[in-house]
Automatic annotation (TrEMBL):
Keyword NAD: no
Protein name: Phosphoenolpyruvate guanylyltransferase
InterPro entries: CofC, MobA-like_NTP_Trfase, Nucleotide-diphossugar_trans
Origin organism lineage: Bacteria, Bacillati, Actinomycetota, Actinomycetes, Streptosporangiales
Positions contributing to phosphoenolpyruvate binding: T151, S170
Origin species: Nocardiopsis kunsanensis
Name of encoding gene: cofC
Sequence ranges assigned to domain MobA-like NTP transferase in this UniProt record: 51-175
Annotated HAMAP family: CofC (MF_02114)
EC number: 2.7.7.105
Amino acid sequence: MTGRGERGERTRGTRWSLIVPVKHLARAKSRLARATGPRRAELALAIACDTVAAVLECPTVERVLVVTDDPRAGAALEGLGALVVAGEPGTGLNPALEHGESAAGPLAPGTGLCALSADLPALRPAELATVLRAAQRYGRSFLPDSPGVGTTLLAATAGSCLLPAFEGASRARHLRSGARELRVAGAGSVRRDVDTPQDLWDARELGLGPRTRRLLAELEGPGHDSARVPS
Ligand SMILES: Nc1nc2c(ncn2[C@@H]2O[C@H](COP(=O)(O)OP(=O)(O)OP(=O)(O)O)[C@@H](O)[C@H]2O)c(=O)[nH]1
Ligand SMILES: C=C(OP(=O)(O)O)C(=O)O
């Protein structure tokens, strides 16, 4: 594991270690392939960087561990201040999160652990702080994505394990597993993951982070009409 150490700020309440999984860029954001053409990997990286930059600005976040085997993503996210956890099992998202949880545990005894999707390009630090404040009341809790089918955030306070069950209809799976569903007003940017061109459009309405915004502007420039969202 490489990267910068703990953040300095102190606030009251639970402190959190965030675990952010980032898929190999060559395979990431496949549902945006038609809209982005050859710049799909670049867009996936811009989205991940905007997500992690916002997480690092959240006052109750102590550290951010990015689980990735992608060297380009790892270098960029480490440059922002995340710790990079490589060597994931290679068997998908949930094993990658468990790998991150194993790395975070000894680093962060007594803090909460929180898995957060890396595809939240409109993420606002204050909204994440609101969700984490709600999560500190439960052993295990989660936040559904905007459509209410999947999950964008799964949290475990000290003494509990994440037991991640992401992918597909994970809201129902997390509920069945006994995790508490967080119902938090003003958390739209934490729920707005981006899988399709329409999602990207909706995230833009919320306000995109600077890297994603810049790349979309380039994609929509002259000669890039196929990149317009939604397509
Ligand atoms: N480290 C790691 N992260 C993953 C893996 N699979 C998915 N992720 C991450 O999990 C989150 C949700 O991913 P998905 O929506 O399933 O995949 P995606 O690449 O974002 O989009 P699609 O290719 O369209 O499915 C994103 O942060 C991904 O980068 C994996 O095998 N390893
Ligand atoms: C990984 C998930 O969803 P998506 O593939 O829609 O990002 C999920 O919601 O568990």
